Amino acid sequence: MTENSSIPQSFEIISSLRFDPGLSDAACRHASSYPDPHKSPYYLLAYHQDRLIAAAAYFEWNGALSWLQQDLQSFEEFLDTSIPDRSKAWRLRIVVNSKGKARVEASPTASIDLMSMFIPSLHTNPSLPIWRVYVDTQSTTPSGFTTHKTTARDDYTSARLRAGINSPTDLAEVLIVNPNGEVMEGSITTPYFLRDHMWITPPLSSGGNAGTTRSMYICTYVRTHFNGYNVS
């Protein structure tokens, strides 16, 4: 970690994921494009653990690293204790502080078409809601707080207010841009753009968040297009 003056005095690293009792069956049906563990009800479980580990390493939080580097089964069992009702879907927010103390905040979430959680399709679904999308009028300087997900979210909150998005329930998003005018990410989503019949996300070099769906899509693309080749 190199930046010092811009670091908030107090923050935690976070990752948000979905618990869904129907996910394991859906994942097994799409095993060629969905990573292990297929039988887990937690969406991209290993990717969320890896994301938290990467953030703890970047901020040099040895206590958090020690706790996060447990085996995946133990990590899942820790999450299990936060699920109020395993017959329903939940949105989980994993929060870890510098000492390695972790908590999970579970919130009810709506049922969705689980197909939307796999690799984006070139086919459109007319029943999906249409969102309003804005481009931020001010640039955001990339930092560890844009690459890693933390509770220090002033940049994203400010961008949403500039776009006139006042509620988290609004079907609206604002695209965060860096000083070079490159799209980094959305304030609460990862944007995908259709290029040459392929869905792509902004490159991580733009300064955006190293999110889990980005990682899954990159790994799946490599497995699909470069199977049997040495990819560096």
UniProtKB/TrEMBL annotation:
Entries under InterPro entries matching the protein: Aminotrans_IV, Aminotransferase-like, BCAT-like_C, BCAT-like_N
Coiled coil: none
Keyword terms of this UniProt record: Aminotransferase, Transferase
Keyword Transport found: no
GO molecular function: transaminase activity
Keyword Transferase: yes
Name of the featured protein: Aminotransferase class IV
Organism listed in the record: Penicillium concentricum
